[in-house]
Amino acid sequence: MPEIVYPQESGEPVVVDLKDPYWAAFLAWIWPGAGHFYQKRYAKGFLFMICILSTYFFGLGIGQGRVVYASFKPGNLRWQFVCQLGVGAPALPAIIQSMKTKKGGDPYWVLCERFPADYSNSSLAFHKITPENNNDYTGETIKDGFMAPPGGMNNPRRRSRVQTDTLGRWHFEGKHYFEMGTLFTVIAGLLNLLAVYDAFCGPAIITPAQREMLESKKKKKNKRKSKQ
Length: 228
Prior knowledge:
- This protein has a two-stranded antiparallel sheet. It has a two-stranded antiparallel ribbon with strand order 3-4.
- It has a domain at about 90-175.
- About 30% of the residues are buried.
- The model is unreliable at about 120-130, about 135-140 and about 155-165 (pLDDT under 50).
- A hairpin with a 7-residue loop joins β1 and β2 (about 15).
- The chain is elongated.
- It starts with a strand and ends with a helix.
- It is about 45% helix and about 5% strand.
- It is mostly helical.
C-alpha cells in the first residue's frame, strides 16, 4: 500500500494512500471514479464519475446510440473508438455488437430496421435497395443496433444491394449531431485516461521544494531578460 506524502509549508503534510495503484487504475478505467472510491478519495471519485459519464452519455444520446461502434476494417475504420474505449465499461457493448455483426448478422440490441422489407413502398431515398434480379427483394433486412457498426459494410453481397451506405445515412439523418456526439464521447474517453493516471500516480500537488525550484528558475529567466 504505497503512500505519497506531500509536505506543506504550514500544517500537516498531505498523505494520499494509493493502496494497490494497479488495481486502482484498472477500476478507474472500467468505471470512471471507481478507482478513487477504492482509494477513499470520494470527492474526486464523484467529480470524475459525474463529469465523464455525463459527457459520454450526452454524446451518445445526441448521436442516437450510433456514434460509438467498433470497426477496424478498411473502408469502415473507426479510429475514434480507440479514444472512446478510454471510458471503460460504457463503451464495451460496442465490441460485443461488432463481434455479433462480424459476419453480417443482426446486432443483439436493435433500434430499428435500417432497410424495411417493403422498401418499394418507402419514400425515403436512403432506405431504397437496388434489386439485382427482379423488382422484389425478399432477403434478410439489416437492423439498426445500439453501438453496432454500420450494416452492409462488412458483407459485400449486402452492400451491393444498398443504394446509399448506412454510415452515410446516419450522417444525413443526424446532421451535425453525429459529429458532435462523436466529439463528446471521444473527449469523455480521453478525460478518463487522466483519471486513470491520477488513480495510479496520485494527485499533482506542488511541494514547497518544487515551488522553490520553479521560483528560482523564474528569477534566473528574468535576470537573463534584464541583461539582454
